[in-house]
From TrEMBL:
The protein's name: Amidohydrolase 3 domain-containing protein
Keywords (A to Z) from UniProt: Signal
Domain of life: Eukaryota
SUPFAM superfamilies on file: Composite domain of metallo-dependent hydrolases (SSF51338), Metallo-dependent hydrolases (SSF51556)
Sample GO molecular function, one term: hydrolase activity, acting on carbon-nitrogen (but not peptide) bonds
Domain Amidohydrolase: 70-488
Location of region: Disordered: 184-230
Spans traversing the lipid bilayer: none
Signal peptide: 1-16
Amino acid sequence: MIRLFAVASVLGTIAAKLTVQSADLVIRNGSIYTIDRVSTKAGALAVKNGIISFVGSNEGVAPYVGNETKVVDLHGRAAIPGLVDSHMHTLSGGLFLLKCDLNYQPLDLNAVLQHIQRCIDDETGKSDTDWVDVVNLDFPSLVTRSGSVGKVQLDKLNTSRPLSIRSSDYHTVLVNSRALELSDITASTPDPPNGKIERLPGSKEPSGVLQDQASGLLSGPPPPNEEQQVEAGRAALKALRQAGITTFQEAAAGADAQKTYKTIQTEGGLSSRGWFDYRIEAPPSLDGVPKLVSNAAALIKSLNDNSTIGPAPALKWQAIKAFVDGVITYPANTAALIDPYWSPVNGTNETVWRPDNSTLNKPYWSVEILARTLEGLFLQGIDAQLHVDGDLAVRIGLDAAAAFKKKYPDRKFKLGLAHDELSHQDDWARFAELEVDPIMSFQWSQLSSFYIPSTFQSLAEYRKRNLQAYAQIEKAGRPITYGSDWPVRR
């Protein structure tokens, strides 16, 4: 199947006698999906200078074929416009293709350890300070099948090397004792802002499970060097080509992403259009907002290719990304909720789940700081995308949009709220009222180990109707924007 960069704007048949300019590319004998209002199918199209100049019949395209025209015969196969993924992490996805990969499989502890041991054994010449870097763990399935897992269990591996395992939700990292030792994470280490060091029962000793920003305390694995970053970028773009994705939004980028993709662009390998959201963190108080806004806006504008979009892919920097909370899934439960999570309580005959007020997580951004930050960015023409997983985080994002709209009723702004895994029914219509885009991953609506059984139980029965409510949000007036969040999977 061939995917195209552009969607046709003109349908019709050009008579053979009409003088036309020869096309650079002609595709014919196909089933070409144009995505017009009536889903018209065509047999052929012509492209000149990156612009579709004809869509119609095989007979009608004939005058566009010149001596230098490349002609592709589809032999009845389909051609569709290129796909746009509005939320993904391409460099992480490319890097993960090159690491010890658990491949999102629902495994118990023995299977996980066996797979990692094979990775360790396949690597030769490593010292006891070289990190073992493992990705794409199905953490909820592991816990459901084998109970709590941390350094005690991971220390059973036959290695003296530090070990890091990242859950496929991208918010939980498991490490062994060697990793904690090298990182100087001890019983006296406090939880960092926007993160949690889980502890062994009845003590302050780290269990080896690090949530959200707590993984930033680790001294490894070392960041990829420039060559590895470029290799990851090439691998990611290959995966995008195979999936037909011709435009992507890198949803939490650092400035180094520009150098990586610029290298690939210079060598002629940039096969998708890149839009980058520069990641920012909340300042400790309102006093820090002006500097944050000024620095972020200056950097974004310095990186952005502000030329008019043309046939060749470009690198656009026009937005920020901020994380308002973690994830709703059990046992992480780091998302910000309006009502508390339910926690398991061991009864006489069975385990029951009851509301647990201790689980009410503080959002990573306060309403006031977020609203002031977005105001400053919007006024400088910078867009924003927010990670909001729980219903309280969704509401905070909408409240910030409402504050700006109230203060500047005639000023346009672009705000996307990513994930919206759990939302409150009172907020569904607010997306349309405030013209805020819900960015959601439809594939997460499947019944997977990330939901069954423990996440459903921790959210309680009454909230199930508010999970993945993209149909309700769209019915209330705001279309859904799709983002895969690759390589994140839940």
